[in-house]
């Protein structure tokens, strides 16, 4: 009879707070508990720190000690499913939105989505920028743009970009926006991952481009959303960030 | 099976915060080691830095998530990630731990202990075979820092590791701090542990710092990698090198990171011990 699966199952149950596994050698029960506590602590603390490093603004907003409790609660239902911790935390935003003690802070979910997207952008695949001449010579009625794998566009119900910015190191206090914001997240050529809020026209333009619309069609959609919208500034900014990787007709 | 080799010099665990300082001055550093799981994203800064380091230095890839001491089969997805990483960077060494870190599909992010029995010996050997076959290289297995012993164990840790190495051909990564931590915690003699350990199978050495707690029965040392290497660990390391000859030796410092010169000075101290051991030593088992 293999004994190891049962041993590991009992050890893991004890990590969650169950009785210590059979066979632990120690001077007495109190010492066994102290020794086992090293393992309980190592796993919980290291995962809480890993979560905090993925969601530093959430940690700052709720405070370090509340965040540690939050991480323990999240771990009960959502331990990492792989040793690649950079992939962990996809469900953290939804968890925050449904965590009863945080019901008065409904914007935290959007802030967490921005932080998760920044992590994805940081690790996204590399892709060289398009040759600017290819874009300059393209027919706007036919050309469709490929965007860098790090580009994320998030429609937030709350002014989460402003909240995120106010909680960056060295940020100046600024009056908070109200209402929804669309967040643009991308990794620039210096590997920085800035976050910016897009106005309604820019957001419509980029949504359309990411959905595969031609430049003309995307500009039309931006016009419908925001009369008089000019697509040029956002396109130039995306070019400068290396975010346009393809222009195909 | 191709056997690349790290140089018998001091190495340092690479931290992105040190990248610029390392590019300015890596004098005396014989190799860098990275945790495999930190380089499993598709692209971006981690790979840009690792590619630059790898171009100029020997590289050790050290896994912390394969759960070699766990029951059942190894995680095929994770093994595939490791294969891609090793194929991309062609490290001189790949190593993992005698420990388990996953339960079912869940990753626990710690190196957890196992009883040493005929059953777990077969299991660990099967897993090491599987890793070496999948990666196409000879891996090294590291002795753990432990806080508990189990009545189920029937094989001493040293004999267990020696037998895994003999059966699978894997190298052994000797973590001298882990020896000191475990032996102190279990009220046994680190020198006796080292006397029983097959030093001729050692392909790499780790040195790191630990924290001290106190139990009624004596100290409980915690393997924290958050401070300088302790003096008793330096003394054991010097004895190992005098006996075995110089080996690639990594200084690990993962938490409460110091400035680069502090870490480089720890590596230089290891380098002095290695230099003093040149000419001494054992033939290496292949």
Automatic annotation (TrEMBL), chain B:
Protein source organism: Pseudotabrizicola algicola
Family annotation (InterPro entries): MbnB/TglH/ChrH (IPR007801), Xyl_isomerase-like_sf (IPR036237)
Descriptive protein name: UPF0276 protein G3572_20910
Pfam families the UniProt entry points to: MbnB_TglH_ChrH
Ranges in a coiled coil: none
Family designation: Belongs to the UPF0276 family.
Taxonomic classification: Bacteria, Pseudomonadati, Pseudomonadota, Alphaproteobacteria, Rhodobacterales
Membrane-crossing residue ranges in chain numbering: none
Source domain of life: Bacteria
């Amino acid at each position: 009879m293999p004994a190891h699966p049962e041993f590991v199952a009992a050890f893991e149950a004890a990590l969650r707070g169950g009785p210590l596994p059979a066979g632990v050698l120690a001077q007495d029960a109190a010492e066994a508990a102290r020794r086992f506590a090293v393992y309980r602590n190592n796993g919980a603390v290291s995962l809480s720190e890993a979560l905090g490093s993925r969601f530093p603004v959430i940690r700052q907003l709720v405070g370090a000690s509340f965040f540690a409790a939050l991480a323990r609660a999240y771990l009960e239902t959502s331990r990492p499913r792989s040793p690649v911790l950079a992939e962990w935390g996809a469900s953290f935003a939804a968890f925050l939105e449904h965590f009863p003690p945080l019901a008065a802070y409904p914007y935290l979910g959007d802030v967490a989505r921005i932080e998760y997207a920044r992590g994805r952008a940081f690790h996204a695949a590399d892709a060289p920028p398009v040759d600017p001449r290819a874009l300059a010579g393209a027919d706007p009625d036919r050309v469709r743009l490929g965007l860098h794998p790090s580009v994320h566009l998030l429609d937030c119900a709350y002014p989460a970009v402003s909240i995120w910015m106010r909680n960056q190191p060295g940020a100046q206090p600024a009056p908070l926006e109200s209402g929804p914001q669309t967040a643009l997240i991308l990794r620039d050529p210096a590997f920085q991952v800035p976050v910016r809020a897009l106005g309604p026209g820019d957001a419509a333009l980029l949504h359309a481009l990411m959905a595969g619309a031609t430049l003309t069609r995307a500009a039309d959609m931006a016009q419908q959303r925001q009369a008089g919208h000019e697509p040029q500034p956002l396109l130039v900014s995306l070019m400068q960030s290396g975010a346009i990787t393809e222009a195909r007709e | 099976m191709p056997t690349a080799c790290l140089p018998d010099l001091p190495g340092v665990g690479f931290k992105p915060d040190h990248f610029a300082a390392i590019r300015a001055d890596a004098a005396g550093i014989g190799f860098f080691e990275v945790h495999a799981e930190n380089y499993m994203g598709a692209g971006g800064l981690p790979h840009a830095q690792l590619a630059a380091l790898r171009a100029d230095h020997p590289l050790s890839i050290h896994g912390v998530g394969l759960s070699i001491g766990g029951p059942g089969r190894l995680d095929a997805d994770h093994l595939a990630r490791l294969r891609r990483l090793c194929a991309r960077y062609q490290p001189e060494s790949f190593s993992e731990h005698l420990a388990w870190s996953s339960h079912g599909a869940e990753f626990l992010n710690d190196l957890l202990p196992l009883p040493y029995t005929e059953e777990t010996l077969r299991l660990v050997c099967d897993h090491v075979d599987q890793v070496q076959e999948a990666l196409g290289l000879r891996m090294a297995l590291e002795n753990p820092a432990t806080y508990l012993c189990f009545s189920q164990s029937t094989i001493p840790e040293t004999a267990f590791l020696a037998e895994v190495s003999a059966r699978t051909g894997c190298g052994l990564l000797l973590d001298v701090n882990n020896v000191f931590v475990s032996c102190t915690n279990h009220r046994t003699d680190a020198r006796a542990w080292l006397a029983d350990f097959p030093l001729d199978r050692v392909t790499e050495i780790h040195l790191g710092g630990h924290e001290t707690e106190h139990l009624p029965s004596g100290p409980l040392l915690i393997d924290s990698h958050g401070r300088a290497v302790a003096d008793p660990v330096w003394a054991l390391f010097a004895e190992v090198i005098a006996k075995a000859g110089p080996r690639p030796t990594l200084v690990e410092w993962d938490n409460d990171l110091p400035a680069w010169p502090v870490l480089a000075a720890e590596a230089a101290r290891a380098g002095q011990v290695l230099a003093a051991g040149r000419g001494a030593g054992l033939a290496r088992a292949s």
